[in-house]
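hiii so my PI (J.) wants the whole complex modelled not just the main chain, which honestly fair. so below is everything: two entries, each one labled with what it is. i double checked the lines twice but i was tired so who knows lol
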Amino acid sequence: MGLEQFKNRNVGTQEYKVLDLQESPKTPMAKFAQVAKRTFKGELFVGLGVTVREMINALFRGQMHTVKYPLEKLPISPRYRAIHEMLRLLESGHYRCIGCGLCEKICISNCITMETRYDENQRKEVSEYTINFGRCIFCGYCAEVCPELAIVHGPRYETASEQRASFSLFEDMLTPIDKLSLQQEYDGFGAVSPNADENIKKTPLAY
Amino acid sequence: MSEVKTVENMVSIKIDGVEYQAVEGEYILNAARANEVFIPAICYLTRCSPTLACRICLVEADGKQVYACNAKVKEGMEINVNTPNILEERRAIMEVYDVNHPLQCGVCDKSGECELQNYTLELQVDSQNYAIPDTKRETQNWSSVLHYDPGLCIVCERCTTVCKDMIGDAAISTTKRGGEDIDKAYKESMPKDAYAMWNKLQKSLIAPSNGTDQTNCSDCGECIAVCPVGALVSRDFVYQSNAWDLKRIPAVSAHSSDGFAIYYETKPRSIEDRREKIFRVTNEWNYVSLDGAARFAYDFENEDATKDEAAFNAAIEAFKKAETIRFNSVITNEEAKMLQTLKEKMGVKLYNPEVRAFQKFLNHYQAASGRALWSTDTDAIMKRADFVISVGAALRNDTPGMKYAFNNVQKLNKGAGLYFHPVGDTLIPSFGKSVECFNHKPGLEEAALYLILDLFADAQKLPEEVKAYIDSFKTSETKTIKEKVDKTVKEMVKNEETGEEEEVTKKVKETVEKEITVEKNGLIDLLGGDSEKFPDAFEKMMKKKESFSMMVGEDLYFHDKAENIAKLIALIEATTTIDVVMAPPKSNALGVALICDLDDEASGYTVGYNENGDFRLSALGNGDLDMPAMNQQEGTFTTMSKRVVPTNAALPYGGYELNDLMKVLVGAPALTIDWTPMLPVEKGYRAVAFDALPNRYLNNGTEDRGYLLDITSTEAALPTVEKFDEAAALEGEIAYRCNPARQFNDFTDKSHEIFEAFGVYASPAKAEELGERVEIVFDNGSIVMDVIADGKMEGDIVKVSDFRAAAGVYDLFGGSRYKNVTIKKV
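here's the output for the full assembly
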């Protein structure tokens, strides 16, 4: 891109339109006359009329232009970083978290802690998981580092509560098992890129 | 004595064009590591024999490809670590290691400190070219502590190598994998070494060497420590924590007198309970190998201790009226110094039967030899010695460090060994072909030392009367033996074809009777050896041997003739080339022996520190006043290597310390570690502040921990030794005060990963004879114990555990480790 347009500092040669403005009143009498004329012209009611018309349209004719918050919410960008959610595997319903501890490690405000154990099926079980939301800065690193897309930032931005603890435990963040079908795949931080398949080198298998 | 170290010959080598100095005869890999040059290697373990399983340490030396782990440096050698061909080999090897390796680093306990991860990234393996069908490999628990996941195993054989070459148990070995053969096409397409390595890898896995699914070993966990991947993990640690979450605190093992360098690894125990907890113990496995107690007995802390003022005041009162303080060797040098100060200022008696016998023995030894302490240590033995002798130590139980050294000498230095001990042990002979065991009667330890004098002493230096005394055991007798001799016979045979007679020579075997003189050494027979066979065996053992060492154990300190034994040891040091190392009985016995002026008897009102007493200070949480346990306090230990080493507090402690009592009683500095520079200089300690003590190993294996005691030595005349009394040998039912491996004191007993029970251990045959539970009657009391069979014991002597102070086993045995007892079934 050329820089010519920025180098032309001769403003006068550019095409400006001169507005057709009336001259301001000069004498005190003329000024008073202008105020009185504008005050009693009735423009106020023209404006109010627009408001009433839109109100009627919105309420009775179904032409609402705003969102009925909190009954209704706008969809937010997948890149928005709100309260964390723990996702489940769609097939089995088992939680995705494998307890690798990467989120715990990468967390720059040190607010994630987890407990793991060796379970009866010889698997690593996440027995407890918690985020201290008093310290979380919603940077999104945990979601980005998660190798299983298990911890993600959900759309829940209303974080007013009597106690922060009420949404900081594993079961609070986990998708309720009965709402598994409603679980949305996450497209935000750390999600698989659309062309991921092209970037993968396949490991040969001998089967 | 090889007291004066010969300056090791150095050669100069060039690695990648840079010149370095290296010890002559050193492997290239070790030479590079000592000079901080990186050569990748997976299967090699310092202090063990090269396995050549991974082949990744391939380098080019003087134009030839060699394995850095088993090629030795030569003067002027030019080494290239990376050539295009070698890089190709290494990358192929790493690709092979990654074939079928589960990609579950996320759950793996080794993640973050995994050598497979590291080398895969180091060698930039970003794609896979090889494939083979996998075999089904299921996780197994090998023992109460070992967990093996063959799915993760890369068969580098480090575990089997360390178990054989260092630990001596040889409890695990490679086994058949039963995998498919590698596709023949790979032979042409793959780099040569990578193919050979894969071929071996594809055929093997690791399994207990006794053919069962359970290892028969001492559960030291060293295989866990050396495992480069997550295949071997302690059962208790599986999926508990990531390596990177744990905080490492350098410390000293508080149990055996070896003073092993360990790291306690801690993190908060749970989300709700943020108190620190020790999750595991790790070690610098290239430089130090731990025993089971050091690795698994870590959770003996005195938790929940608070500053209980009433108890504290009671303790002050108790100290004021105390006549005796009874304690054991689980105590730091600083605390020992405090108790000594109490003795000096308040006139209390210090009673410590565990250490007193050892202290007396050291005094006798110093009087006889002019040297305050012994001349060598286990590290030096492993590095140099090729002949080791052990007298009076139950190697498998008392001193793991000595056991490892004894075994390591056999395996790595092509060494030989003599083991003198009354209790038969099936493990010791398995250390090497040149190990001779003498299971003598208890009480004949002096005879063993006389035999050593006979075998090794310089006849010129030996006093005439000693020589004469030794010769008095020797008899020569003539014996008629039958010998088969080849005899050449000439015969005339008629040739059937020609009909002529021909002379034919034939060889015929004939038995001839022959008279020979046999030299018999009565000492050998007395010690339970075979005087006819032994001289030949000994001659073989002595071949090409240059450096001799002797290990002395606790039996000799707890002995009626301890003084004479100390003199005999001094005589052995003076007249032979044998270096001596002595095992302090348990923990910090040496520190206590050097710092405290102990008394023989306890009397009156007694304050017990982790011991029985009228008022009990206890780090076990069951006393009248809480004390910090060894993992909750900082201070120094004096180890078997004559080294003063610092240990740090891994866990918080909320109660009072001994130093707080000292402040009230006699006045003391602010902190326990302020006592460190006050340790007695005349005993070899230095006035060095605790915080100035180093605690690390250098890359070439040098132990840079704390400082070595300055040992005074004066010229001393040869000691006059007494004859021994054959009649003093114990006969009949004998009990031996000896703990099972991994148990040393109440603290090991408290730890949840130590399972060895308190009881009487006997050989399987004896155990069957004794039944399940017995009462052992001593002269001065009796104790009822469970009988436990120990498959590695032989003979009729039983081992009675002493690790529970409250059981008072020390008092039953008194001044000896062997006692005649009556064993009754209960």
